[in-house]
Fold each of these.
Amino acid sequence: MGDFLKNFSLEGKVAWITGASYGLGLAYAVAYAESGAKIVFNDINQELVDKGMAEYKKRGIEAYGAVCDVTKEDQVQKFVADVEAKVGTIDILVNNAGIIKRIPMHEMSVEQWNQVIDVDLTGPFICSKAGLPAMMKKGSVKIINACSMMSEFGRETVSAYAAAKGGLKMLTRNICSEYGQYNIQCNAIGPGYIATPQTAPLREKQADGSMHPFDRFIRSKTPAQRWGKTEDLMGLAVFLASPASDFINGQVVYIDGGISAYIGQDPGNLDPSKFTDIDESQAQ
Ligand code: NAP
Ligand code: GCO
């Protein structure tokens, strides 16, 4: 194989993925480890960190994991100091940790609103800020944010999440603008609808065993008529973390099976016998 593919290698890089005990964060970390990176991750409690460590060990990955709530600056600053002392300065930061609350806006409390904004928008600010001093000295650093279809579109019940993910798109552009001079690239992954615990409620079978209406809806909006798998996002995550993407900065790269390009079809026209996906055990 020619030298060109070395541009996609993460050999020797220190990759910090926030909230990476399961879901998309775990998938990104596995892809990074298999591309040569050292994995560092945090989650909100020891049980989840232990769960994540077990998942990495199962895959032969030696990871550094610790409890750290991305909304608490003191915890994040300590986490980064510990990582820099024990593992090395951070080359790749994926601001993956996120929550969603599906509540009609007129029924949402300010506390619920703030909880989502704190994790999904302020968390990436806090984590990026904590890493930047060493990143500015080091250069050749990647910051990758977890944007979303809701960085571009709204829908009922996700006002706080959409506001956070829209803000995260602009934070991505602003980190690009302010720190590109230090050879730091900040981009975002914009997944479509992916089968993870976060979206499991949208696929739950109805009491009569029929498909969740939202499941049918999303398939009618996706040309491939399927939900994404976490594996679908691994290649893009590696690309945006690698030297191959050094001249891409401030971009949200949507990986959505075509949802954002397709007006959709009548959900009633779908033939479930043709669906090629979703065994809920895969939605880890
Ligand atoms: P997920 O299954 O809910 O996992 C999110 C992870 O973040 C969990 O480990 C969670 O731990 C952790 N976390 C939550 N709050 C935290 C905090 N304050 N500090 C540290 N960790 C925290 O989500 P996912 O589906 O893998 O999605 C990952 C990211 O991609 C999220 O930002 C999400 O918004 C975004 N995204 C997802 C989709 C999708 O379709 N799945 C599409 C577009 C974008 P807990 O278990 O304690 O909550
Ligand atoms: C929802 C979903 C979405 C996905 C993702 C889509 O309730 O609409 O949770 O928000 O999580 O963000 O890109």
Note: The helical segments are 23-34, 46-58, 73-86, 110-138, 159-179, 213-221, 234-241.
Amino acid sequence: MRLYTVLDIVALILALIHFGIPLTYYFYLKNKYLNKPWNIKINPNYKPKVTIIVPTYNEAKLIWKKLDNLAEQTYPKNLTEIIVIDSASTDRTPEIVKKWIEQHPNINIKLIQEPERKGKAHALNHALQHATGEIVVITDVDCWWPKNALQEAVKWLSDPTIGAVSCIKKPATPHTTEETYRKYYNTLRIAESKAYSTPIFHGELAAYKKTLLQKIGGFPTNIGADDSHTAAKIALTEHRAIIPENLEVKELIPKKNYPLWRIRRAQHLIQHFTKIANTRSKTNSSYRKVLALEIFLHLINPWLLVIASLLLLASSLVFHSLLAISILILGVILLMLREYRVWVIKQIILILAALRNTQAKEITWKKQAK
Ligand code: GDP
Ligand code: MN
């Protein structure tokens, strides 16, 4: 039995970094930026033509309701075009879309069918070639917009310095883990946006100026996070990519396999940040810091927790260190605290996602029932 070992000291330092950096980042951003006014000029006369692209793969269950939701938008109908791009669904999604189109002759909507599924980003690029709007908005099927979503997104884009706008997300049905996680996550996205831009966007509503999409060569087809990566590339070309606080979308959470869903999404984010980490570019200094922090939080920080835990475990088992045993027990007891538990779950998800990325990139993923 020992009071403590050198392994414990190393573990404590790693744990301090693991918890200290994100906490400092969160409170720093929150205090410095969250309540700051937006430094943006809104032009109320800006009424561009908008193309909404809805990518579908086996969405038979939800697509009708989704199109109904889009048809309810307050943005002028004569300035709105909807393109549904389907990639060889096997569940009659295209037939349902055709029927909806027939029943809504007043809506400017078309369906494009790809003969083969090559992934969401590939489909988005295909649809982009047909988009006639000045603004292009992507929206996944499994989420509901408020009626003024389009109008709000366009409002922010009326400032010439803004290149892209996304939404904050809330689960459509109660889900404690998801809600706790989103609370902190949404705060970070808004604060990062006020600082300059956020490197994490949401496919539930992602609006871009089309000229900028064309300039960056469309959506990335070799990684999963088309939304976040596109936003980051736009922010790196000196246009802001922001998430305002008043644009809230309700997202459906899978009924089964919630962890697997989170892991797949984390895989995509890791692919995105790995690619950004390898991109050299001059950009706004606040944004450079945000990128560096988010890259650290997604790619490195989870491993510090793993290493610290393994060191403590070794120290307990080999040297029977009292300090190591006490910290491990405390670490487990603290799991009763929701915030801490949600944080630890997120770290495990990132670790599993990094491991899974070595096997498959999940560019075409299995549809999860929602
Ligand atoms: P999640 O939100 O991360 O769970 O991803 P989803 O499974 O909801 O997919 C996001 C959106 O992309 C949905 O509207 C899907 O129907 C659509 N989607 C996924 N894969 C493909 C694809 O290969 N082609 C097309 N056209 N759409 C896809
Ligand atoms: Mn979705």
Note: The beta strands are 50-56, 80-87, 109-114, 135-138, 143-144, 162-166, 168-171, 206-209, 240-242, 248-251.
Amino acid sequence: MVNKSLQIAVTGLIQGVGFRPFVFRIATRHDLTGWVQNTNEDIRIEVTGTDQNLGCFLNSLSEEAPPAAIIEKITSLEIKTVSFPSFTIRDSHNLSDKITEISPDIAVCDDCLRDIEQHDNRFAYPFVNCTNCGPRFTIIRDLPYDRAKTTMGLFVMCEQCRKEYETITDRRFHAQPTACSHCGPHYEYFVGQEMISDRIAVILKCISVSIENGEIVLIKGLGGMHLACDAFNESAVKKLRDLKNREGKPFAVMFRDLKSLREYSEINPEEEKSLISWRRPIVLLQKKKVSGQQKLAAGLNVDLNLLGVMLPYMPIHYLLFDNLKTKAIVLTSGNFSSEPILIDNQAALKQLSPFVSASLFYNRDIYNRTDDSVVRVIGGHERIMRRSRGYVPAPVRTALNTDGIVAFGAELTNCFCVGKGNKAFLSQHIGDLQGLETTLFYEETIAQFIKLFRIEPTLLAVDMHPGYISTKTGLNYGNLPVFQVQHHHAHIASCMAEHGLDEKVIGIALDGTGYGPDGNSWGAEFMICDLNDFERITHFEYIAQPGGDLAAEEPWRMAISYLYKVYGDKFTELKLPFLSKIETEKLEMIPMMIDKNVNSPLTSSAGRLFDCVASLLDLVQVATFQAEGPMRLESLVISGCTESYPFQFIGAISFDDTIRGIIDDINSGISNSLIATKFHNTINLIIFEFANSIRLKQGLNKVVLSGGVFQNKYLLEGSIEILQKNEFEFYSHLTVPANDGGIALGQLAVASKRRELRCV
Ligand code: ZN
Ligand code: ZN
Ligand code: FE
């Protein structure tokens, strides 16, 4: 048999997921010699062997890759035959400074779960991990990814762990956080400030009893502290709401397994795929109507039919459910509303332990704070709503030169983004940049990303809003050129960058709010744009937003504003149930504010229109969480209805006739469900009509959809359907949030394009 040699390059998310040992194993299995090595951009392999063995090797390479590896491309090239004595893993230390990819955290794998049941040193040991699973990003202080540069650095491996770590055929070969009950971290159980036990069997028993008794407990998670209670216990859930000072925002629930989860949620195969993936996000699912069996606490997600659910992902979760009778626990971030999730044991002990029955900490530090990620399957694809644990810091690969660009993001649900080469590293979910704690987290994390990914900032990008903390942070960052990017242009550019588009497109941004260059608050923009610039073609007609930001929290203000616009003073004579709930002085105040232009900025926001309709149907008058109105409205939508309301185009898209139609329907006793559905259909029709008119005039056929409103499943699926039917090429977000969490990527893409064109 004649030997041949191949030079192979593998790109993708392949660092820190056991890829090189995997290559070693399959190469030796197929009788090949050669080597494997990490480089800056990829993993390089040279192998020598027979034709047949090389073929099998290539097959194994793509078919059997470690679960957390994401292979983007394998290229192979035949080279002059080289003879190697054996197969080796080559050192990559000389390249270490350039290696920038870090694996996100990976849910504990099945092999490790078996170790918890059997392995001598790892029996009931809650920190098991291997090259296929375990903490990654949350424990990394610096690169290269070596144990010493993680928060595992303080733990000295015992003899057995060391042996496994050094044995190339072992599952723990070069598993940086490897540990066992002899040498690794451990949990400690506190009541109040007092440490009661560090024995896992005792701890599990005590915590389980607390949860079963309807108490709240604090459990240190992978990326931060969690507060937990029995998801079936109404009073425990109420207690948790009071503790967190969180009135209405739904709580996420962790089920013990898929079987229990199925009893309470409708779940399709795509949703199941997300739930059991190694990223283990919170998946938003339709609640099942259950009869006869135990019901989940109604207070989890008051009257919403969406439920955020997840499956266990840390060994401690599995051990806990082994001791618990309940099928599900609430697992919510350990913080007070609006503050970032706590990561420090001492801080949590001080701030939260007075309010909980018990606290469970472990003695390994969390270095990079992450929240649980949130996804929703829309149109058969996973869409990310909150991008954090399990997803960050995997980069978005772009076709642009992003090097040295720092994009600061928006104000609410902030994420920032840094560029290296052609990659864009979007930060984990930071939160709303209003509280001091969140702002500190924001500044710290920017500094950490710059250090971790070896970024030398040369260009900055910020929003146009002068009042955003992110804008101010960017403008004060240093003596560097700054591009201010319009909010909705950034939304569209973000979706373009995600899909590698760099051309003129039809951009449709339906959103809550964003600063417009005319000084008004924009939020439903139909534009022609490329990465460099945009032209606003049309938008929802401007309407007064009485009370400014307050109107986003109090949807009734938008309802009155629309009613006053359509019916004038006569709106008070309309027989609408919701009007009776609002005090007369307030009803009189709004038209006065509008007439005198007192704190009533103009807006074209789609979010505010949804708020208005939610208020008209008396679903929400004062929101208890962000986007409650739109969520409740979507919650009512029924399938099979194709009716819609009329709308007009009078220089902008006017909803006067839509509002009249809705009021007539309310007065005729038409159900809220039907009205909500007709309203959604109207927006879908508008998306199509205006995309189509732009296509006819401009000859563009690519439509890019972005903005927070596209987190609405019915709306996005409806848009996709109508655009597809009419042969548009359309693009919507998949791996980057459609909400403001995706803005920074768009800012970065615009800045990169402008630099390229203007040689900044
Ligand atoms: Zn494992
Ligand atoms: Zn050990
Ligand atoms: Fe936005």
Note: The first helix runs from residue 19 to 29.
